[in-house]
Amino acid sequence: MKTSVTFGDVTVGPGEIGFGSLTTVELADSTPVKLPIIVMNGAEDGPKFLFSGAVHGGELIGANVVRRVMREELDPKKLKGLVVAIPIGNPLGFMFGDRASPQDLVTGPRFGSPGNAEGSITQRFGAAVWDQVTSKMDLRVDIHGNYPPCTAFCLCSLHDDRIKDKNTELAEATGLTIVYSPPKGTLDGMGGAIDPSYTPPPSVTLELIDARRVTEVSTDLGTRAILNVMKLWGMIEGEIEKQPEQYVWGGGRVKNGGTIRASRGGIVHFTRTPGEFIKEGDVVAKIYNPWGDVVETFKFPFDGHIRAYTYPRHQAINTGDTIAYITHDK
Ligand SMILES: [Zn+2]
Question: What separation, in Å, do the N-terminal and C-terminal C-alpha atoms of the chain show?
């Protein structure tokens, strides 16, 4: 942008980077909690891009992708357009390493819709980001991650006809396996209803590996994905880079198959490797009770893949807990 821009307490001129916070909430003992932001204002005009990490507070890897991209990779003097980066999207959950905030048990603010400025403490972060940032942006990437055993992938929603083609272009640029959710109302469709009163910017979600830890592998995968998206939109120079083959699975594009949930409780054992091809009927997990009996066996519902096994804290689970995120073969 060729003029200065202001977000929260950060004002930056063309060709500059600035650091600060977008908004502040307050805890019961008067402790203020700020939402950190980094703003890079390019020397030349171009698209406006928001990316964020740790919207689920336990998934800290996104904060390190933000650090790498904003502090080591980009140069505001060579940038076309504007980048607003939110390293820690949910500071309340982040403090405890938890997906949700302990104050209201909300599993992360939503940055892709208007949210509720008069809602709970976490929802207010989401509303501030929508009002002040997302609603003014041209594209958005949210960085999440799963806990091992899991794969890396890019979630791409095709629900909204207004942005589905751009979502697909963004997802393809990331170089990660695309897990696409077909339109709502069709088989396995996921996602909320489309609200005609607003149009979200095109957006995708990255899911990285071992998200509780700072690893080179996931930092590299996430950084390459973000820079590729910026190259596609002409914000920086350079060729789009492929992701390393060993992290791309399922032929690069698969359809979301939802989740597998436990009916029983106990200790879950995982019997397959995320990313590998699994035939319908293959056993993918078992639950043992405390006495060592198998109380539930999980057979895969179709030909496909497990993209991540999942568990709340460790592999002890309750009735109704999700034990795997799954996809169809194509
Ligand atoms: Zn997440």
Answer: 41
pLDDT at 313: 82
Please report the pLDDT score of residue 192 as a whole number.
60
Q: Do 133 and 222 sit in the same domain of this protein? A: yes
| Domain range enclosing 296 | 256-328
Shared domain check, 203 and 262: no
In this structure, which amino acid lies at residue 159? H
Q: Are residues 140 and 188 in the same domain?
A: yes
The closest alpha carbon to 147, from 329, 323, 11, belongs to 323
Same-domain status, 233 and 305: no
Number of domains composing the chain: 2
- How far is residue 31's CA from residue 25's CA, in Å, rounded to a whole number? 9
Q: Name the pLDDT band for 312 (thresholds 50, 70, 90).
A: confident
CA of 321 to the centre of ligand 1 (A): 16
pLDDT classification of 330: cutoffs 50, 70, 90:
confident
Ligand 1 centroid–CA 145 distance in Å is: 6
- Give the pLDDT band of residue 22 (cuts 50, 70, 90): very high
Q: What dihedral do alpha carbons 175, 179, 184, 190 form, nearest 10°? A: -130
- CA distances from residue 66 to 69, 238, 286 in whole angstroms, order as listed: 5, 19, 38
Last residue of a domain, one of 248, 280, 308: 248
Q: Which residues are within 5 Å of ligand 1 (an ion), measured at CB?
A: 56, 59, 144
* The model scores a pTM over 0.85: yes
Residues 244 and 275 in one domain: no
Per-residue pLDDT of 195-225, as tens digits, reads 888 999 999 999 999 999 999 999 999 999 9
What's the 16 CA to ligand 1 centre distance in angstroms?
31
